[in-house]
Amino acid sequence: MARESFDHRAIEKAAQEKWEALDLYRVDLTDETKEKYYLLFEFPYPSGDLHIGHWYAFALTDIYARKLRMSGKNVLFPMGFDAFGLPAENAAIKRGVDPKEWTYQNMETMRTQMKTMGASMDWSKEVITCEPSYYQWTQWLFSKLFEHGLAERKMAPVKWCPKDQTVLANEQVVDGHCERCGSPVEDKSLTQWFFKITSYAERLLTDLDPLPWREEIKEAQRAWIGESEGARITFAVSAGGETIDVPVFTTRPDTIFGATYLVLAPEHAVLARFLEHTTNGEEVRAYQRATGTKTERERSENKEKTGVMLLGITATNPATGEAIPVYVADYVLSTYGTGAVMAVPAHDERDYAFAQKYHLPVVQVVEGEAELSTGDGPLTASGLFTGRNNREALWDIADSVGGERVKNYRLRDWLVSRQRYWGCPIPVVYDPEGVAHAVPAEHLPWLLPTDVDLTPGAAGAGKSPLATSKELHERVEKLFGAGWTPEYDTLDVFVDSSWYFMRYLAHTDEHAFTDQAVAAQWMPVDRYSGGSEHTTMHLLYARFFTKALHDLALSPVSEPFNERFNRGIILGPDGQKMSKSKGNVINPDEVVAKFGSDAVRMYLAFLGPYNEPGHYPWNLDGAQAMRKFLDRVHAYQPGAPAGGKSTKATEKGIDYWGMRITRDTDAFKFNTAIAFLMQLLTELEDNTTTPETYQTFIQLLAPFAPHLAEHLWARAGGEGSVHHTQLPNFKKASVQAFTLTIQVNGKKRATLILPTATDEAGALAAARAEPKVVQALAGATPKKVIYIQGRTLNIVV
Ligand code: ANZ
C-alpha cells in the first residue's frame, strides 16, 4: 500500500523552534525535587563537520536522555568541545590559517549541524577547553598536582625529525619516518613533565572491581596497568677491573640457574660507563642509533631478534657463580622493570630465539616434556634446589640470591609535555638557577601567546613553538624578574579532557574549577558513553585525576563514572572503516535532508545493541526502511481498524509493550526497543485504539523520533510538548504472563507460559509436570533450585 510521505523538513523545523522557545532542555542543577541523572558522552574534537559517527555518538545517547526525562529524572545532558589539538596546528602550518579561528569556525559549523539532529543537549553549560576561562582551571589543577609531588620533570625520549628540527607526535611517525618530510626519525632525550599516575596503579586496579562496567572494559584497563609480581635480582657486571651492580626484573627467579647471558636495553644508563671498556664500542653505538628509529611496539613484536655482544665485559650469575656474556638487544625495553633481563633461553621464547641466533647455551632447569616448556615441574641442574617443585621453590631461590620481591606495572608515568602550540600552556616559570616554579594562581589564566612562529624548527633545536614568542619572554621577566624564563611546552590534550565532567557543573565559575556542593549532588556521572578507543588512556586518566583530586579534597568521589558503555563503530557502505581516502564517508546532512533526522537516528539505533562494541556497515536501504515505518506511523489514526476485524483494545495491552520498550531502552538495547515499537504499531493498526492508548504510543515513540512525535502529539490534541510528559509506570501495570525457561543443570530443557505472579513453588511444580524435564531429571531429587522470577528456573541435581 503506497502511503503518503510527510514533510519532515517542516515538522523538524517546527519542533526545533518549539523546543527552543520552551527552553526544554535546560537543567536546573539545584533542583532537588527530582532524582538527578548525569548522562555524559565524550565531548567531540571540533574537526569541522559532523560525520555519521558523531550522529551515532550523540543522537543515540539522546534517545536515552529523553527517556530519562520522561521517567521523571532531572537529567544533565551537557555538551562541549575538546578544542585543543594537532589538526588545528597542522591546518595552520599547511594553510597559514589561525588555529583559533579555524577551531571556532569548526565549532560553529558543528553546532548548527547538531541542531538539525534535534538532540536534547543542554547547550547552556557548554565548555570549550581552549577558552582561557576553561584552561585557567586546567592550569590550576596542574599546579595542585605539582604542589603535591604528582607532577614532576624528568628526561624522556621523544621522536625527533632531524630535518624539520622538531619533536614528532607518535601519529606523525610513519614506519620510522617523519610523516611530513620523510626523513628517518631519531630518538632524542628531553626533560619533560610527567604526572605520576604510577603511584595510583594499585588503586586504579582494585577500584575497578566494584564498577558496573562490562568485564572486557575492565580487563582492558587491567591489561594496560599490567601488574606483574616478581623479583629484583642483582647481577655483578665487570669490565676493565671495575664492577657495577645491575639489577634485573624477573617473574621467574626459579629459572635463574638457567640464566646463560644478560641483556641490557640499548638505552640502559650503565652502557655509557661500559662502552670505554669494550672493543666494539662503535658497533654498539651504531646499534643504539638504529634502535632509535623503532617504536616500542615494533621492538616488542615477534620479529627476528637482533643484538650486539659487549666484548670484554662479563656478568656473574649469582646462583651458579659462573661468568656469562652481556648483550645489548632492543627486545629489552628501557622503560619496563629495570631495563635489564637475565635471559633463560630454555624457558623463555624471546630468549630462546635470541640464543639460537647467537649460538648461546640453553640450559633446561625445569623438567618438562619439551624444551621451552612453560609448565611447572621439578627443578633440575639447580644446585641445592634440584628436585624441588619450581613454583614451590621460587621465593626460596630468589631469597638465596638476595632477590627483593617487587610489583611492576606496565603503566608508565603519564608524559604530559607536548612540544606544540595549540594546547594549554604549562603554567611554570624557571628562576635564573633553572628551578621550576608554578605560576601563582593570581596570574592564571597563563595565556597562550599569539605572536608565535609555527614553522617547524623555527624555535631552534628541541624547542617548542612558544619559544618564538617575544611577548611570553617579556611577560615572564616583567612579572618575575630578569633571568626568569617560561616553560615552552603545552599540555597533552588528554589533560583537558580528564576533568571536563566536573566543569559542566559550574561552567562559568570564576572562583573555582567546579562547585563542590553541586558536585556532591551530581557526581559520579551516572552513565558515560563513548568509543572503545578510549577504554584505556582517556578513561584511566580521568580516573587518575578524580582520585588525585579526591585525595586533595577537591572531588567528592574517587571514581568519576558509574556506568560506562562503549558504542560500536559505523563502517562505510563497503564494510570498511570510513575514511576520506577510501571515498566511503557518509555525509549525514544529505541523508538527513532526504529521509529526515528521525529516520536517520532510528536507523542507527536499530543497527544493534548500543552497549556492545560492534561493527555496523551503513546501508541506505535501512534508512529508507526506517522512513517507511515513520510514514506508517504518520498515516496511522486511532479508532477502529480499517478492516473492522477486531474490537479488542490491543491484543497484548499497551502496558506489555510499554514495559518492554522502556526496559530495553534503559539497557541501551535500542534495536529491540524499536522492534517492539514496530510490533506495537501493527497491533494498533489491527485493533481498536483508544485516544489514551494512542497518546501513550506517541510518548513511547518520542525518544526515538522526537520531531515526528512532537507533531503527532499536537495533532492528537496533546498539550505542551510530548517531551515534557511523563511515561506511565509500566512496571506497576499488570503483565498477564511470561515465558519461563526451565533448565536442568544449566541446560535448557523446556519453556512454559506462566501467570506473572507465579512463585518458586508454583514454577517448580509446573516444571516437574513437563515431560522433557521429567526425562532430564531421571528421578533424581533436586539439590538446588534457582528461580529468577519472570525468567528462568534452574534445577540442579
Ligand atoms: C627470566 C625469565 C625466565 C623470564 C622465564 C620469563 C620467563 P611480565 O610478565 O610482562 O612482567 N623482562 C623483564 N624486563 C624486561 C624488559 N625491560 N624488556 C623486555 N623483557 C623484560 O614479564 C616479565 C619477564 O619479562 C621477566 O621475567 C623478564 O624475563 C622479561 F622462563 O626473567 B623473565
Considering the chains and any ligands shown, give keywords for the structure.
binds ligand ANZ; four-stranded parallel beta sheet; seven-stranded mixed beta sheet; 31 strands; 797 residues; 35% helix; alpha+beta; globular
Description:
It is built from 26 helices and 31 strands. It has 797 residues and is of the alpha+beta class. Strands 10, 11, 12, 13, 14, 15 and 16 form a seven-stranded mixed beta sheet that branches. Strand 20 and strand 21 form a beta hairpin. Helix 2 (52-70) crosses helix 19, helix 3 (86-95) crosses helix 4 and helix 21 runs antiparallel to helix 22. The longest helix is centred in the N-terminal third of the chain and has 19 residues, at 52-70. The mean pLDDT is 91. It binds ligand ANZ.
Radius of gyration, in angstroms, nearest whole number: 32 Å
Bound molecules: ligand ANZ
Distance N terminus to C terminus? 56 Å
| DSSP summary: helix tally | 26
Looking at the structure, what is the overall shape?
globular
- Major beta-sheet overview: 7 strands, mixed
| Content-based structural category | alpha+beta
Instruction: Indicate the low-confidence ranges by residue numbers.
Output: none
* Overall strand count: 31
Measured as a percent range, the helix fraction is 25-40%
The overall pLDDT, averaged over residues, is: 91
Beta-strand fraction estimate: 15-25%
